[in-house]
Design a protein that fits this description.
CATH superfamily of the domain at 124-244: Cytidine Deaminase, domain 2
Shape: globular
Helix content: 25-40%
Oligomer: single chain
CATH topology of the domain at 124-244: Cytidine Deaminase, domain 2
CATH class of the domain at 124-244: Alpha Beta
CATH architecture of the domain at 124-244: 3-Layer(aba) Sandwich
Strand order of the largest sheet: 9-8-10-11-12-13
Amino acid sequence: MKIIGQTNSLPVIEEVPVTRLYKDKAQEDPRMDPVIVEHLLTIVVDGKPCTTLTCSPELLIPLVVGHLYAQGRIPDIDWIDSIELSEDCKTVSVTLAAGKSLLPVPALNDWDGVEPIKPKAFDKVKIFAQAKGLYDNADWFFQTGAAHSSSLSIHGEVKNRIADVSRHNTIDKLIGQALMDGMDLTNAALFTSGRIPLDMLSKVVRCGIPIVCSRSAPTTAALALAKQFGITLIGFVREGRMNVY
């Protein structure tokens, strides 16, 4: 896969004027306050618009690679011949390899051809450490209150931590970067700050990640899918405890 042109990002946080009011005080407090940037990114594949995402404007090429792969639009990163980010960071243009075209978007209950995932043992000490590392590095959230974050470890070693205005994008960016770096996702553990619904876990199934963890909770549909494919799902990893489903 050839990456063409620049891979710069835009500011992810902007200062805006606000007036802070207080319940028990009469005064008004004008100040500047940090607000997370929500950016529109259009994906163009072989010259045709594919979709537009809302995202934090950094790691945009990994976002597109991970999105196409985790959505089931491409089965392998080798299907991408080249990828280019526009100078204004508003468009990512993808050229597929000769003879390839995007696969249809599969339904959330369409798992034809998707293999069960081989379960992997986990070390709870490393899971707690991954949770702590994600929380301790959640700078965008602490500044704005409006960011999600996720991290990916291989054999218990954290490889990347990524934040975004969308929790789905954090997963896509991690997956895209892992694919670009040649990582084996069958040995990965994914940790996310947000809840785990069906559409998010479906990304994990298509990527073969065997362990998924969260500070928050899964849904019943996500639990059913995890059971169907052999994924270890762990929730409420905080305050020295975790639920293994």
